[in-house]
Amino acid sequence: MTNFFNDLQQLVDVTSRVTILEAFAAIFLSFLLTLAIAVVYRITHTGARYSQSFVQTIIIMGVVVSVIMIVIGNNIAVAFGLVGAFSIIRFRSAMSDPKDIAFIFFGMAAGITCGLGFYIVAILFTVTLIGIIFFLYATNFGKAAQLRKRLTLTVPENLHDEAVFNSILNEHLTFFALRSIETANQGTMIQLQYVIQNKPGVNDKILMDELRKANGNLKVAINYLSTEVYY
């Protein structure tokens, strides 16, 4: 009987060591893969806002998810318990770029596959998607032929007819639409905001010079931020 218990204890020890090694392999591989994903994000990021915390979050989320999948295993009760625990978490920060959400899911997917022990699938998935991301980045896929921009035009308070500028805008733009009117400089000025799209070959400086002649040489600004979406 004593030999039986000794053999059973040795089997438990071996099983524990194997489980620990598998868990370490999953965590380490998820760290390497999410590190590669974070580097790709940093290289291909083109938005106006870059956050070091977000880059580190991609790595942390991937590793955490892999650990969660290791803990869950085939235990349904643990899975439901974790779902209940994580349901109380609320994330208050909004994503400024939709592509950021895709990178979060990318890192989580790599962590899940590592946690489930599909190491080859995790590597193939990560390498393939990184190749796709670099292809989209190199070809600038999806970019519009001409970007729409935001024109901010300052006019005197007594020049309240925004139609005054329509002839200039029609001459230089293929598209323009007035989006907002607001007061500035304690009500002595009015700011008009347009969404605009230049005609082919039209230089922004020429448009700005023409508008300055019409608004009394007050401020004219064109915003080029590619992360903003104008409707």
UniProtKB/TrEMBL annotation:
Protein name per the record: DUF4956 domain-containing protein
Regions crossing the membrane: 20-41, 53-83, 103-136
Superkingdom in the source lineage: Bacteria
Keywords, alphabetical: Membrane, Transmembrane, Transmembrane helix
